[in-house]
User: Fold this.
Amino acid sequence: MGRRGLADKGDSTRGRILDEAVRIASRDGLGGLSIGVLAAALDMSKSGLFAHFGSKEALQIATLEHAAARVRERTAPGAQLPPGPERVRFLFRAIQGWIDDPGLPGGCPITGACIEFDDRDGPVREALTGLQRRSTERSMALFAEFADPGQDLEQLAFEFRAICLAYHHAARMLREPRAGDWARNALESLIEKARRPTAGA
Amino acid sequence: MGRRGLADKGDSTRGRILDEAVRIASRDGLGGLSIGVLAAALDMSKSGLFAHFGSKEALQIATLEHAAARVRERTAPGAQLPPGPERVRFLFRAIQGWIDDPGLPGGCPITGACIEFDDRDGPVREALTGLQRRSTERSMALFAEFADPGQDLEQLAFEFRAICLAYHHAARMLREPRAGDWARNALESLIEKARRPTAGA
Assistant:
């Protein structure tokens, strides 16, 4: 099955292949995902997958982008809410649902890859920084809807990411039943801070 | 060189061996650290290291404990400061120095292992949760020195860890020059929140 063959089977086949790749990257780390490992998991030919993805790195990047698309599917409905803090709360709940997804045996593969690839220059790292930049921009845009004009949106986005990372740690590593409460309380403090009038305004 | 032989060489030899193990775990992940890899990096015999550590898992646990001891060397001088928020600031700066350490090519090996082993039950995971619990207890004790009595210390410790994780991400993954400023600003907000009188007090 060459590039054309796989494309002919439509997006759903590609989606199913990449869902499995996301699962493997969650369990074993993105470095543990190769065309051979994926072919074995799917009982497909290695040459077919190789013809489609071209290289291990291209497969890793496609997997990250697929994971990011899955996150966006969860976060996108927040745009139906009126502008304001409820959209930030929705965004957090959507990310929380992704982190808790039982289909991700080892947690968010993007978060894992950030630890794995932070010191490895190359196209995978570049793809990751691009994904992180876009997620920062999305949370900045949501805070901009209700934050005091003197607030630093990048600062708020940093603190929003902090809550997501700490939730991942508390829920996945510590298996702490209060992880969700702690994250929600931290988010309410952050929303309150965002609204607070600043001297610089 | 058996267990006795290595012990005879004193703590400094063991320390140098484990410093190299910490470096490898930082670069390749804790899963990438084995007795064979470490023996090759140190140009030592595999059988000597095996006799000393006994198993890959025991080596991984000794490496995590050694990394935690290195962190404590950095954080311990904070006890010389008078009780209060300056100790929390010192703790953060000490952790920041560790995260930025050029001897750690891929960032903090404990943070990396938390992502790698969160789904792998066994002694390595247990050692990790023990280390995380102790670090939570230490930051809770520091916040207890100045927080309003109605504040939830576990909540504050969660938010303190959030800042450390987000600093690691922004400095190591995003290579963001403002990472330190963002983390310091977030920490000041957290200190302010800790001091704020609560309805529950």
